[in-house]
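Reviewer 2 asked us to include a model.

Predict the structure of this chain.
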Amino acid sequence: MRGNSEGVFYATPYYRISNDDGDLAVSGKGESNSISNQRSLIEDYVKDKPEIILCEERVDDGFSGVDFERPAFKQMMEDVKARKTNCIIVKDLSRFGRNYIEVGRFIQKIFPYLGVRFIAVNDNYDSAKGNNVEDSIMLPFKNLMNDSYSRDLSVKVRSQFEIKRKRGEFIGSFAVYGYKKNPENKNQLVVDEYAAAVVRDIFKWRLSGMSNEKIAERLNEQGVLSPAEYKRSLGLRYQSGFHVEKQAMWSPVAIGRILSNQTYLGWVVQGKRTTPNHKVKKVIEKNPDEWVIVRDMHEAIITEEDFQTVQNLMKMDTRISPGKARVYLFSGMLECGDCRAAMVRKLVSAGKDSEGKPRKYPYYVCSGYKKDKCCTSHMIREGELEKVVLIALNNHISALINLKQVLTILENTPHFRQETKKLDIQMLKMNEEIVRVQNLKVSLYEDLTDGVIDKEEYFELKQIYTKQIGELEKKKARLKEEQELCKIENIRKNEWMESFLQYQNLHSLSRDIVLKLVEKIKVFEKGRIKIVFRFQYDYEMALQTAAIYQEYQNRECKGEDQDGQKK
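Predicted model (structure tokens):
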């Protein structure tokens, strides 16, 4: 051991504070105030102890005491093994650690075996004074109290974080790429215009048919810093488990994470991961239905329509042929109308071009037929398919233009506005009636225990009230359907309709247009196809609303009331 002089101890002062202790460094200081206080206390303690010589100190600033996976602590133990120190001094036992079992193991077994003197100043413990009855009782008790404190603190911190998550307050250490923390409110995100522009490009390129690999390649070629490197360029102390090279580059995985991140919709999405408890630091991924999501908490970078289109796109089979940068126009969108297998793209040669090279014509064929002949070919040429889809889209858009005009007129119809108001009043009264009957049902048990009714009457009345509640709930459901049909403002102004109307008089198709407007294309024999447009449910609701308007108009012309009776 270092120093052979009998009675001389070469001591390592050990200081620790965790992020949860609430005494962290303030701006302009390299360490927390608590570390300074610990240092002053230990230096004062050894002033009148000439046998103790202070050596190099070890500091773990920002590390929890529930385990001993701390860099400075490990270095201190290496010093002990290298015989550079034979004494360890801490402010108190909690600074050394807050794990009852591990702290006891070090103090009572490891240090005595290594010949290390251990001193906890404020706890008045010094192993050189020998083990007395008080120490044997109080030392484990103090360690247990420190352990309990750490557990209680962990519970309080987790509870506070959960409250903040449910409020939609951002509690992450670093903002999501594309955003930065609001300087005036660290729990709110604001748009980082430079990074947001990159995010918009990523979504735009994906919609245009580029794969994640090609997008990553383009960004790297353009010299755009990856999210990790961009954070470091801003001076943030960012560390990531995904960083494996000296300079992190864009990768298909990074692109995929951005394309699936709901934060870009203006939502705060948190609680994706957790740990079993304050001692076990193993990270557990939570199911998406357990995430805490609060909408409309900051400015959106991507529209919900584009975001959802990309999510649908990523579920498709959109592999790219070698040497190609983009997927084909209908990749992943075609299925056999009979066996529902995917349609695959093939090429057939027919004739030669002006240079004498074979002309190749693309067509699609049922993969079930191609694989094991379990279906017929359903063959259709790509050029023919494109023409038919273009015509169908233009027809659908024309129909929507007419439908929007009808809904606009309907919105301004006094009779329809009165009907909407009447339904709202009916729904209010329906809810009041359901609550009234539910209260009667609940009060039955009190009447039974008070002797107001007997057991037979109790079960009979309970059955009657249960039946009444069921009937009222059915009426409420029907009423709600009628209310949905009357929500003209939402139907007329909904973005789904504008998604189509912005593409009036199409002359050609592009990949992003097809993705935004078409859900699926079913191909049948003899070139017959069925197109499932996006927002089909909204379209059907709008049609039903228009039908209601037409019915009202017919009744008005005939002079009938709502029930078809003459006024």
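Residues 399-558 form one domain. The radius of gyration is 36 Å. We have added this to the supplementary material.
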